[in-house]
C-alpha cells in the first residue's frame, strides 16, 4: 500500500510540474499575442517610408565608418535609409541578416516568421534570448532590432507567407530576402 501511495504522489508531482510549465508557456504566448495584436494594427496602417534627403548629426556619427567607403558615402547611406526590406524567416540566417541591415541603417525592416522562440534556437538565432522564449520570432527579432537601432522602423509579421497574403506583403517591400 505504501508503494502505491508513493507512486501516486510521484505521478501527481510530475503532473503538477507539467501544468506549471504549460501555464508559463501560455502566459508567454498571451503576453506576446497582446503586443503582437497591437503591432499588427499599426502594420495595417503602414504609411509610406519617409524619404530622407540628408543625414542628421547622429546619423553621421553612427555611420561614420561606412560613410568613408567610396562605394557608399553619404549618397549611398541616404539611399539606404530610404529602402524597405522584407526578411522572410527570423531564424539562423534571417537573424544575422536583419541585425546587419538594421546596423547598416536600412529605413524599414519587415520581419516575417510564423514560429516561436525555443531554447534550441538560441545558439544560432542571435536576436532571440532566454527572455523571449515562447514569443513569436518576428516580435522577438523586432524588439532586438529596436534596441540595436531605434531609427530603423521594424514591422513584425507573425504569420506564414502564403498565396493569400504574399502580394499584400511584398508590395510594401521592394527588397525581399527569404531564409
UniProtKB/TrEMBL annotation:
Q: Which Pfam families match?
A: ThiF
Coiled-coil regions listed = 5-32
Which SUPFAM superfamilies does its entry note?
Answer: Activating enzymes of the ubiquitin-like proteins
* Top-rank lineage group of the source organism: Eukaryota
Q: What is any one GO biological process for this UniProt entry?
A: protein urmylation
State which residue ranges cross the membrane: none
Q: Known InterPro entries for this protein?
A: ThiF/MoeB/HesA, ThiF_NAD_FAD-bd, Ubiquitin-activating_enz
**UniProt keyword 4Fe-4S, yes or no:** no
Q: What is this protein called?
A: Adenylyltransferase and sulfurtransferase MOCS3
**From which source organism is this entry?**
Anabarilius grahami (Kanglang fish)
Amino acid at each position: 500500500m505504501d508503494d502505491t501511495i508513493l507512486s501516486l504522489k510521484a505521478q501527481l508531482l510530475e503532473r503538477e510540474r507539467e501544468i506549471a510549465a504549460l501555464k508559463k508557456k501560455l502566459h508567454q504566448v498571451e503576453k506576446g499575442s497582446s503586443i503582437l495584436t497591437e503591432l499588427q494594427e499599426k502594420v495595417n496602417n503602414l504609411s509610406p517610408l519617409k524619404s530622407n534627403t540628408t543625414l542628421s548629426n547622429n546619423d553621421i556619427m553612427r555611420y561614420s565608418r561606412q560613410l568613408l567607403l567610396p562605394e557608399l558615402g553619404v549618397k549611398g547611406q541616404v539611399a539606404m535609409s530610404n529602402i524597405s526590406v522584407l526578411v522572410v524567416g527570423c531564424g539562423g540566417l534571417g537573424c544575422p541578416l536583419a541585425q546587419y541591415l538594421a546596423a547598416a541603417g536600412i529605413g524599414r525592416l519587415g520581419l516575417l516568421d510564423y514560429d516561436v522562440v525555443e531554447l534550441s534556437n538560441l545558439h544560432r538565432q542571435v536576436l532571440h534570448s532566454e527572455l523571449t522564449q515562447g514569443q513569436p520570432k518576428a516580435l522577438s527579432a523586432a524588439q532586438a532590432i529596436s534596441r540595436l537601432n531605434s531609427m530603423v522602423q521594424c514591422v513584425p509579421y507573425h504569420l506564414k507567407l502564403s498565396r493569400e497574403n504574399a502580394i499584400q506583403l511584398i508590395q510594401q517591400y521592394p527588397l525581399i530576402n527569404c531564409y
